[in-house]
Amino acid sequence: MECDVLVIGCGPAGLSAAGYAARAGYNVLAIDSLAPGGQLLYIDEIENYPGYEKVSGYALAENFEKQATSFGVKIEFWGALDIDKDGNLFKVKTTGEDITAKAVIFATGAAHRHLGCPGEEEYQGKGVSYCATCDGPFFKGKKIAVVGGGDTALTDALYLSKLGSEVHIIHRRNEFRGQKVLQDRVKAKDNIFLHLSCNVERINGDGKGVTSVSLTDGTELEVNAVFIFVGITPNSQLLEDFAEMSGGFVITDNHMRTTVPGLFAAGDVRTTPFRQVVTAAGDGAAAAHAADEYIQNLQ
Ligand code: NAP
Fold first, then answer.
1. Where are the beta strands (DSSP E) in 9-79?
2. Which of 46, 225, 296, 298 is most enclosed, with most CB atoms within 10 A?
3. How many angstroms does the Cα of residue 210 sit away from the middle of ligand 1?
4. Average pLDDT taken over every residue of the chain
5. What residues does 3 pair with on adjacent strands?
6. What is d(CA 245, CA 236) in angstroms, rounded to the nearest whole number?
7. Ligand 1 centroid to 148 CA: how many Å?
8. For 126, how many CA atoms within 13 A lie in the half-sphere containing its CB?
9. How far is 299 from 297, CA to CA, in rounded Å?
């Protein structure tokens, strides 16, 4: 299949890029092995995306998709397997058809990082979770542990405190990384308890589900669920040995240009100091604009 612009990844960055490029008159194909929306699909409620007082991640994802397709973007549920450049054309192998494109916008986002402690893998799906919206409702009235100190841990601890009887935030430092406004809200909740300067040593269970967590300070906390929010790992494997990276994140300039002419990166997968839905969408728009300039200069 041939297209002008191939967008890999259909989260906020990818769908924004695809919409901008299609609206500029290009034939745009956007691919993703999963449902469009990326990490939006894991967010219960978003209150800092401009123009919305409050919106669910799912609803915002649907709006991104509808808007992109209304501009003519074609979306396929294909995973990208390999990328190469032959002259001025990119050749991308996918789980569906092989694709030839003049420019590629890489917006594959990032995945949840794991803690790597004993019990984590064993109890995944039996109390260990990486998605509060998906699994929180299973633990109504129960005791819940949340691991991490960033925006995700704080936002999701607040959400889980509406469901669980107690939420215990376990964070390895004595200061949170997450925004101050979220820290203040967490501290104001009387069913959220903080365990600072310690980490999870092991997740314990009875074979069927989680029963407690052992902390590095010697505490054993009785909980039925452990939600792990210890950051993200970029989904950048496809570009290994193809574009330059830093710590696994794809290096770009302010125009979202990577070290390979015609290849742009946008959103959480690129080196950026601030990872939000709005910055991902902004990256997507900038990448589409840069791709437009690049393609025009090819002719
Ligand atoms: P993050 O900001 O990287 O925070 C990860 C947290 O996990 C940090 O507190 C870190 O501790 C801790 N951590 C990392 N490895 C650990 C380990 N092995 N054991 C224990 N703790 C560990 O990740 P995030 O919270 O998922 O956020 C990702 C990005 O999305 C951020 O840029 C964030 O701003 C953005 N985001 C924004 C919103 C919003 O605006 N509403 C919501 C969610 C996410 P240290 O602090 O000690 O490093």
1. 28-31, 74-76
2. 225
3. 23
4. 96
5. 101
6. 9
7. 6
8. 15
9. 5
